Input
Amino acid sequence: MRKTIYQYVYSHNDEILNEWIELMRKEADERAIQTMSDHMFIKTSAEFVELVMSNFSESVEAFHDRAIEFSEKIVRLGWPLTMMTDGLRVFGQIVEDRMKKEGNIDHNSYVEFAAEINNWMFPMYKTITQAYTTSWERTVSLQKIALQELTAPLIPVFDKISVMPLIGTIDTERAKQIMENLLEGVVNHRAEVVLIDITGVPVVDTMVAHHIIQAAEAVRLVGAKCTIVGIRPEIAQTIVNLGINLEDVTTTSTLKKGVEQALTLTSRKIVEVQE
Amino acid sequence: MMDSSVKIINEWDIVAARQLGRNVAKELGFGIVDQARITTAISELARNIYLYAGQGEIIIEKVENGAKKGMTIISRDAGPGISDLRKVMEDGFSTSGGLGAGLPGVKRLMDEFSIESTLGEGTLIQSVKWLR
Output
């Protein structure tokens, strides 16, 4: 029976592919279709069907490698996993319908056919789902690492003055890193004044404020001064509404003002050169 | 009327809830300051869910009351509940070592605020910001 299915699928390759594409267009998740061009959709579909076919002719290992390669591509293209599982289901359905219509299976052989098709499909479901989630997990963990790399650098800008620009959301993990980098950097750069720039922090809620206050306090303990710069007007208003007390922390609206203040604190100033 | 919700299960869902709130606020025509107030309020509510209830959801709805337009933020969880509602609405009260400005802060950030909580059953917080 397995041979019959294989031969049927193999000799009707093109028709099955066309029917599959047509059905998937109707049934599939809209996301999958919107994200790619027609040409790309057809090309990827052909590859998917080819992958399913290859399961007949290739060894388990070869199929596994092929599934992983294809899944990685799919993840990059942004096709959802349902596109692949639905795809398999639709594929099986098409083969069944067509073979029934053309008399390749009848009442007597149907049970055998169903068992065979299940045997064929189930390992594929497993391999494809596994390959897809593995690629996906890999992408996520890579992004996490990439995010960590741009977490919170402390940059010395003048002697005794360092700046830490913060961009994006501050979560617990990041708050910890901010604190570590800050204290380590203050000691290493021999900074006397540290400017924490929050221009790029979208929301300052009580937790973010709490972390900033703690960071400023810790900086004070290692003998330096900490100024929060880049407080946008709307952030100033929400801080007041929340009732957060920032009295013990020096703040300025812009990094420029912060730098000027820091220079004054370290008894220096910037002067224009007289020609 | 359109409404949508974000399930809060991990810390990053707080960002998702905030993002949704900001988009709706923008769509309704709230100014930058009110957008900041709304997103900050959502952030506080979502963080409370994450910290104290473990999981729950933030529901964002557009509301209309006569000529007035605005948005409602609902925070719902099936967590342990709050034993003393009066106390959590006091500034500076915190069980987690935080600033204790969360809930009273949300009340000040929004125009309307109501809270219901049953011990062992969960907490429901509804708040509205009207478009001026």
Q: What stands out?
A: Chain B has a mean pLDDT of 90. The beta strands of chain B are 3-8, 56-65, 68-77, 112-118, 122-130.
